[in-house]
């Protein structure tokens, strides 16, 4: 298996997940990229340890591990938003502490999108 630095050198110039923004900014749509930035730190392909957060059927799904491998661990959070944020923060801090802050923000955004608005009378 090639090193993560070599993989990043190969894919940083261009890959199918790159999206160009305004003012020469680049974003990434790859799985395992929490921030959506095209950088080595956030890359879900190049890093040996990647963290991904998605929403499935009203639940928050946390995936840890290499994106291409089948050895990814998946954790489903079904509680309220505060408990989910606390649980995800604890899981990510133990796995990749540099992404803990970003993961907490991402969970807050996902929980807000899942929340059902109360009907007004």
TrEMBL record:
Coiled coil: none annotated. One of its GO terms (molecular function) is structural constituent of ribosome. GO terms for biological process: translation. InterPro entries: Ribosomal_eL28, Ribosomal_eL28/Mak16. Keywords: Ribonucleoprotein, Ribosomal protein. One of its GO terms (cellular component) is ribonucleoprotein complex. Residues 6-113 form the Ribosomal eL28/Mak16 domain. Gene3D superfamilies: 3.30.390.110. Belongs to the eukaryotic ribosomal protein eL28 family. PANTHER family: 60S RIBOSOMAL PROTEIN L28. This is Ribosomal protein L28. It comes from Chloropicon primus.
């Amino acid at each position: 298996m090639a090193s993560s630095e070599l993989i990043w050198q190969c894919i940083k110039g261009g890959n199918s997940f790159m999206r160009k923004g305004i003012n020469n900014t680049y974003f990434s749509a790859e799985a395992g990229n929490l921030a959506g930035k095209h950088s080595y730190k956030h890359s879900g392909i190049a890093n040996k340890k990647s963290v991904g957060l998605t929403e499935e059927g009203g639940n928050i799904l946390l995936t840890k591990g290499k994106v291409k491998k089948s050895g990814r661990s998946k954790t489903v959070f079904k509680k309220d938003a505060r408990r989910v944020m606390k649980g995800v923060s604890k899981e990510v801090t133990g796995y990749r502490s540099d992404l803990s802050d970003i993961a907490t923000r991402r969970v807050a955004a996902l929980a807000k999108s899942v929340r059902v608005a109360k009907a007004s009378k």
